[in-house]
Amino acid sequence: MDPSTHINRPNGLTTDTLQQQQPPPSLTINESHGNRNANMDALRGIAIIGILFMNIFFMNNSFYGYAPHYPQLQSDIVLEVFSNFFLEGRFISLLSILFGAGLYIQYKRYEAASLVAYPLLKRRIKWLAVFGLLHGIFIWGGDILLSYAFSAFLALNYLNSDITQLKKRANQFIVGSLILMTLLSLLVEPEYYYRGSEFHLLQLQVWSANYSDIVFLQLNQVGYMLLIIPLTLMWFLGGLMMWGMALYRQGAFEHGLERTTLIKCAMATIILSSLDSLLSFSSSAILVECSAIVMMLSAIPMTLIYLHLIVKVCQNSAQVLAPFQAVGKLAFSCYILQSIIGVSLFRYLMPELNVSLNRVDYILIALGLSGLQLLLAPLYLRYFSQGPLESLWRKLVSKN
Fold this sequence. Notes:
- The chain is mainly alpha-helical.
- It has one domain (27-398).
- Helices cover 70% and strands 0% of the residues.
- It has helices at 15-20, 38-55, 74-86, 90-112, 117-138, 145-156, 163-187, 198-206, 211-228, 233-249, 252-255, 259-280, 285-314, 322-329, 331-349, 359-381, 388-398.
């Protein structure tokens, strides 16, 4: 972090004042119920649903994920290329941008309520980190909440930066993190992980152990992430969050992108996603490792295209894309529910699926789970104003 950067806080408030002021019960995790941005709810819901289509492959083995056939099936190749253009990394990036915009909204709402915004946001993020630790250790090791917490602490430092400086620093963080991740990936010796290989069979055995052993595995995985996040993902996701702040301030969540920006995003997506696909099917292990870095870069312009399209379709209407908006309002609860269902299915109820399912089968299961959430979320909101985890998070933040 730039040492010249400092936290901007309202003038005239002491440490005692910070400790005394608490958020009023009327403040929610995102926006007040009377002034919600329906476009952002729809985008958030689509991001949560979209993440499932990538996470589903890792619900048993949260480190290595799907074991491809050797040679690969034609259907797997087609789906992987499709994923490289439209799915992989796109929805995590979209959720990161939304998270940054949400931080800025919360900051302004706290200030409008004459509250000291920074310590309250910091408390939110600390509890998010706690949720991430619990989720990653006891439910599913592929947790993203902990990474978001680290990244949000970084992004908080730039809440009051002007838009030009915000974008410049965000780009520096993103590019720097990708360079570092590239260097680190080249130091790791790739494993020959394919369907039926000795290493794949060993992984099946390891992840089929009893729950206490799984918890120990996931504890190790979370410990590894605690070491690697500050070096890599924190800067990448933090940069995306800062872009979210800038896009919100520019009105992108109300009006979408300019036409020239949209064209540039489309061209960048085509070029980078094509390069990603070429590298991912290379016979060189080094080039395959590099494809993951290209994927992360290609996700950004495609994410912006999704943002533009959903804003234009939704038009801030509470009726258009309403089921996705319902999932967006329950994003935290829906994300954890996905983990619980997926882990229960692939580890405990039907572990034999891990040796028989192909990519098409996983996608079909993800479609089914998505449909279930799109049905349950609107039904839940008929009777409750907040999701169970959203409500718990709010109460924990509001406690003295």
